[in-house]
Amino acid sequence: MLHIKSVSCIKQERCLFADLNFSLKSGQIMQLAGPNGAGKTSLLRIIAGFSAPDEGEVLYQERSINKYYEEFAHDLLFIGHKTGVNIQLSAVENVRFWLRINGYSNEPDLYPILAKLGLVGLEDVPVRMLSAGQQRRVALVRLWLSDANLWVLDEPFTALDKSGVAFLQQRFTQHLNNNGAILLTTHQDLTTHFSDLQTITLEYRH
Ligand SMILES: Nc1ncnc2c1ncn2[C@@H]1O[C@H](COP(=O)(O)OP(=O)(O)OP(=O)(O)O)[C@@H](O)[C@H]1O
């Protein structure tokens, strides 16, 4: 599904990684590990097509993501370390906005979905009035709505409590069973056993 071919990245004259090669198949989950500043977010941003590698290329379904970005973007769900949630809007307004800009014309009933994520009674208050973990849950609602096959998630467990972490991993299992693929960074170990988990560790290079 996804091929990282000889990818290198230099930031502020420091080579974060060079000649990186790996691939991710349908139904697979991959954890990107490494210390702060190793380059995990930089790599995810390259894979999502938000920045260009200094060398190498990213292929999705055997095609360069740069040449076929529109198709690739349609099949990608990226949730960054910053949640991307507008804190002035409510949870429902945020989700509606996200659905609209991503071209989803049918709006499902959002209240049961938000309820699943523990946001009952908080659906219509501005997100700035929610806790950090609740704000993260609003961002993660996209994982229940998107039909993208490839999920790229930067620190998705940040601020979540134990039940939130477990619930999110249940969702990962469903996605993998539906032949989706997941690439994520996390500083904590996954608590669910994924039979096909791969780990790539980026070392801090000086
Ligand atoms: N836009 C940028 N401009 C210049 N340097 C950057 C930029 N983004 C990141 N860097 C540098 O690249 C290095 C790697 O940052 P990155 O965010 O990819 O690391 P990370 O492994 O995700 O770290 P963390 O675990 O702390 O999230 C850091 O030294 C950072 O200062």
From TrEMBL:
Keywords assigned: ATP-binding, Cytochrome c-type biogenesis, Membrane, Nucleotide-binding, Translocase, Transport
Source superkingdom: Bacteria
Gene3D superfamilies linked: P-loop containing nucleotide triphosphate hydrolases
Pfam families: ABC_tran (PF00005)
ABC transporter domain: residues covered: 2-202
Name used for this protein in its record: Cytochrome c biogenesis heme-transporting ATPase CcmA
Organism: Pseudoalteromonas marina
